[in-house]
DNA sequence: TACCTCATGTAATACGTTACATGATTAG
DNA sequence: CTAATCATGTAACGTATTACATGAGGTA
């Protein structure tokens, strides 16, 4: 049920079309909440039916620009303050760790080495993203940077853990 | 597609019934791959149909004990070594961070304070779990401890990040 | 005998992914 | 005039959640 809130959140900044939202997802939210094109257009229709967003302008090629309604903003605020974020997080990366015993020690260490490398690469990717963005003082910049910092710390942590873990296996 | 591998993984240790697997999930894998009762029984039927597990014993109350077949073990090994782990991790916790700008600074800091507390509690829960378990040298103990260590480091990281983040908001 | 735990299953619904399908507008 | 980009949508399928439904066996 969070894709809907992601869309409401993006629309709280400024009105946008499905296509716009798709592009903005790719460059920001995709890291924390991946979604496909199909899913977005479907969800936008549902949100419009529910009165949380409304078509505020039409453009060429059937473009429909959506604007957040008061009901939509209320729903967004409620999600942010009134619901517990205790969401179950699935990790196939960690799931595999439980079963490394069915492999040879070499294979198991190989898997952990892959994780080390993956973490390094993601870390570097985020570093470059950080440098490429012109950070301002606006709310978006502040919170975007906070999320990015999470990614950096997370990947640094995971890298160190994977290296430590490889040492535990003999 | 990972629930199936979680079940194959558990059955690689020893034969078990759906009910047994359900209990073992609750006390170990639930943290990395939550699954419901319905889902498990359905998946076990599919795995049996696919020849990856087989009914090795029947007990009272219709109990069916499943055993991993050679095909099942091969599939498990293939998943571990031959498939790339998805780093597609959804996090509604982090998603909210992007939109804290629609709240007052007090509310935003309140949210981050909740995350700090949540991380502390999870950390403590894992510490207690760590102490309550009699760790041996068997593969299960080694890999279970590695996964647990990840949880500890992750929550420590998240706590520090949430405290830092609260300081970024004015 | 009554209650708890063991034990399995199905149905309805929601959410997510992949693929298919179509067409308008703009830039070179 | 051709290709890329803009722009929207539907269909089929797979996975996940919630609720419903049933009953055997052990124990107080």
TrEMBL record, chains A, B:
<dbReference type="InterPro" id="IPR005149">
    <property type="entry name" value="Tscrpt_reg_PadR_N"/>
</dbReference>
<protein>
    <submittedName>
        <fullName>PadR family transcriptional regulator</fullName>
    </submittedName>
</protein>
<dbReference type="InterPro" id="IPR018309">
    <property type="entry name" value="Tscrpt_reg_PadR_C"/>
</dbReference>
<dbReference type="InterPro" id="IPR036388">
    <property type="entry name" value="WH-like_DNA-bd_sf"/>
</dbReference>
<feature type="domain" description="Transcription regulator PadR N-terminal">
    <location>
        <begin position="7"/>
        <end position="77"/>
    </location>
</feature>
<dbReference type="InterPro" id="IPR036390">
    <property type="entry name" value="WH_DNA-bd_sf"/>
</dbReference>
<dbReference type="Pfam" id="PF03551">
    <property type="entry name" value="PadR"/>
</dbReference>
<feature type="domain" description="Transcription regulator PadR C-terminal">
    <location>
        <begin position="89"/>
        <end position="168"/>
    </location>
</feature>
<dbReference type="Pfam" id="PF10400">
    <property type="entry name" value="Vir_act_alpha_C"/>
</dbReference>
